[in-house]
Model the fold of this input.
Amino acid sequence: MHEFELINNYLKKLSIKNLASLKLNDDVFFDKKNKLVISVDTYIEGSHFINFKNPYLVIKKIIRSSISDLVCKGVFPKYYFISASGNKKNFNKLNLKKITKSLNEEQRKYKILLSGGDTVFSKNLSFTVTSIGFAKNIVFRNKTKVNDDIYVTGNLGDGYIGLLVLKKKIKLNSHLNNYFVNKYFMPDIRYSLINNLKKIANASIDISDGLLSDLEKLINKQNLSYKIFLDKVPISYNLLKILKIKKLLKKNFISRGDDYQILFTAPKFKRILIKRIAKLTKNKISRIGYIKKNNTKSSVVNGLNVKIALKNKGYLHTF
Done:
């Protein structure tokens, strides 16, 4: 059973009377009357991060990926709560100093404040982060329109390469190793785009599980499909270099998750405005495709407009 089956078959009916739950079909809780926005994320060792050998970097990853849910809604994160399960091996004095240092740096960078949490003894290490912000409006999922352009911020694929490096499944020089590992642990959260996102986007989501997987979540309750141009999907110079050297295919690296970039759709008449905002805020924003009616299947095409198959659309949460 995957997560949407679990939600739709068992949990959704419990939230019917709670409009702020957004029918459990978004990444956040939004109480419009009280201008309250909340997201909750859980991270488990061995699943969401390989191990806890570098607590300083693991903490950065979980904080950034958590506040990313608010950022992609056009909301400034303000407070966060962090709960942890583990034992004295995980939370010895040295590790606690590294955790505290990392949290302090993230607080300063993103102007957020630790506001509470919980600690529980367990043989298994996990963290749950609750992020809170305040806004009159947000950018929802499932507000996409036919003929909307599809956009992504930043570059895709670097986080996945970082994961492969950590798992020792790809060999690179020390410079590239450091670059990709840092991209995995410290994704580029588009904080400077928050104020403008509601001006341009009809719908948005952050790319955590993978480009195509998250795009399908974006339109999952609508009678829509998509067309993505592979050549338009942005990747870094370092990833391009690796693809050439190791003779790898771009299509196998653009939808593997851990990007935490913003994926959004916008009407065509906002193209000039989006370019202007990208320049003013110094954000890379790429138009990679468009939304169609659901009378044709979703597709990814190459430069010759030929459909290509992707082995992996992204991570699927199953139980």
